[in-house]
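Workshop exercise sheet. Pairs work together: one partner reads the sequence aloud, the other fills in the structure field after running the prediction. Swap roles for the next sheet.
Pair: D.N. / O.F.
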Amino acid sequence: MKLAVLLPIYNEERDLAACLDRVLASPITGEVVAVDDASTDASPQILARCHDPRLQVIRHAQNRGKGGAIQSALLHVRQDLCIIQDADTEYDPADYARLVDPIEHEQAQVVYGARDLRSQPLVGYLGNRFLTLVTNLLLGTHLTDMETCYKVVPTWLMRELHLSSRGFEIEPEITAKLARRGIKIAHVPISYEPRRDKKLRRFRDGFKSLWALVRFRFGS
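Structure field:
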């Protein structure tokens, strides 16, 4: 079973080449839909140097955020399963096979990669734990890591969620909409090495994620 990797990119010249190498080294990577979200650094040149036929590059003329990039990528996916991949080296694509295994063996329809959050700075750790707790209380889920980037979802289902969030609140939107459809989410432990210079602004984006959980739990 092959994966479509949705790769949103904004100014990731430091780690992008290493990330691409890892993603393309996975034996179950069927395609990579990379969305250059109006980068102003060398990210477009790094993408241009990669000639793997599985890589498809889309460029936004204006920045639309992580959520907007994921929505663009979904328009071009051909594989039956998709996963979101941040364009750095926090997550390890060597975990793809372990994430797909429960779906391949019909034990789950959707699988989340669960990080060991204790390696995060304290504020990030507490924020992620809090958002996951609120998610479970609001949605009746039993997740250990709602904000994880690694969400393996059938492509048809991801498209039917009709995602609308532009920023990092795309993560709670996906989770809330899956839960409202009654989809059971399995979770598999994954490797994780947090970066210190995150684009995410913990308090501002944390409040946005909290509001998104409430909004998509009770609205569209």
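Discussion prompt: The beta strands are 3-9, 29-36, 55-59, 81-84, 110-114, 151-154, 185-189. What would you look at next?
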